């Protein structure tokens, strides 16, 4: 979604920081899953390739440091994640997305992006060490070792930088980890997969879009093909440096459910050929099919289709929590990743496969593209 960019200060209120997390047995009881599922989530690298938890603080001052139970709209749209629930679930890292209102002027988008980047950094600094920026694989490992949740700064809609003096090359080397080329609207870079693309005749990647891909490659920022129109998708694949892993961070697949938001098998293969990964979204409206499961198994159906087409080394989790989605009820809160893992166990997935999907597959890409220096502290 594209929220208004309200310039609210971060809430200064009492530091409602988590002082530990629920014992695994209690969390398992609360979720109705096995202790094994909870302990697996907490022991392994659990990384979500797309969360929008930076949107609610901008919209109404939601403080992601405090526990939020009982959101007014239930599991719908926002309020899925906060630090205590991340800790209960064992979410060791996530791509925190910065989304910029596309209907602002290019200059205003660039200014707002810079402000939001600073504000996300301020949130990390105000977390008493529970959040750490992780622009590289080494920084992720340092955050994990410190028991912090690793924040990988990401951008949804690279047109936030349209007016940046040198485009994506303007970005500091250690800031943004990945960017979707477009979001729900088409832009100077190319067409979106959403119905908004009907507004333009040429659905491909524009020359500016080609230059953007090249800039991202030069910066070693992940090129994220979520949200892009198929014609522009193939333009991006052609422009992209094949030695770098491509991502589609939050998507479904047409092999499980035909939908404009989902990727087809040829698109999956193009991502796998670069060694990249595909994160499966938790949004019911993109995943569910007539007669299909209504619970977390609908996420599994999409993951299993990806595994059938390109193997188990190229699938990941990309929930889109807090991004105006409606997840299945049993995934309705961000402390419920163990429910998805319980469904994997019930489906007979070996532990090694579960761990690949939860984090190892993405970490392989992260180590390849942005290794960083071992022992180097993440810049604050
Ligand atoms: Zn999105």
Explain what this protein looks like in three dimensions:
The protein is α/β, with parallel strands linked by helices and 380 residues long. It has one domain: Alpha-Beta Barrel (TIM Barrel). Helix content is 36%, strand content 11%. The chain has 13 helices and 9 strands. The strands form 2 sheets. Strands 1, 2, 3, 4, 5 and 6 form a 6-stranded parallel beta sheet that branches. Strands 7-8-9 form a 3-stranded parallel beta sheet. Strand 7, helix 9 and strand 8 form a beta-alpha-beta unit. Helix 1 packs across helix 2 and helix 2 packs across helix 12. The radius of gyration is 19 Å and the shape is globular. The N terminus is likely disordered. Bound molecules: zinc ion (ZN).
Keywords:
single chain, 380 residues, alpha/beta, TIM Barrel, 6-stranded parallel β-sheet, 3-stranded parallel β-sheet, 13 helices, 9 strands, disordered N terminus, binds zinc ion
Concise account of the structure shown:
The chain is of the alpha/beta class.
Please render the helix and strand layout as text:
Elements: H1 24-31, H2 35-43, E1 47-51, H3 55-60, H4 83-89, E2 93-99, H5 106-125, E3 131-133, H6 137-145, E4 149-156, E5 178-180, H7 207-219, E6 222-224, H8 230-239, E7 247-251, H9 265-273, E8 277-280, H10 284-287, H11 297-310, E9 315-317, H12 337-346, H13 351-369
Parallel strand pairs: 1-2, 2-4, 3-4, 4-5, 5-6, 7-8, 8-9
